[in-house]
Amino acid sequence: MVHNDMKPWFVTYTSLCLMGSESGLADVLLNMFRNLATSRYEYDLVAYSVLLKGFCLQGDLDSAMELLIEMINNSLIPTANSFNWLIYGFFKMGLLDKALELFNILP
């Protein structure tokens, strides 16, 4: 893309995040996410949700929860889908009390 003087834009990066999160590359994508966030790109709820899903699928619930808090700190309101991935992750890891806690605060 860059070789053809085409600049990637927000949707391009979000699409990369989606593909990578489903391939177990959430950590790599988070680094890309962080680097781009310091430049001219501002991520929206969709991009955060895609990364959140990736961490939950990998079982990295600490990173997923940190991302959820970052979303909220950036004035983004997580959707029920964001919470569903976290609940799924906690349930899958056998942490039913954490899953129930999140379920009880669903929007």
TrEMBL record:
Record-linked Pfam families: PPR_2
Q: What name goes with this protein?
A: Pentatricopeptide repeat-containing protein
Entry-linked PANTHER family: PENTATRICOPEPTIDE REPEAT-CONTAINING PROTEIN 3, MITOCHONDRIAL
* Matching PROSITE patterns: PPR
> What keyword terms does UniProt attach to this protein?
Repeat
Task: Give the Gene3D superfamilies listed for this entry.
Answer: Tetratricopeptide repeat domain (1.25.40.10)
Name the family. Belongs to the PPR family. P subfamily.
* Keyword Ion transport recorded: no
- Can you say where the PPR repeats lie in this chain? 44-78
Fetch the InterPro entries from UniProt: PPR_rpt, TPR-like_helical_dom_sf
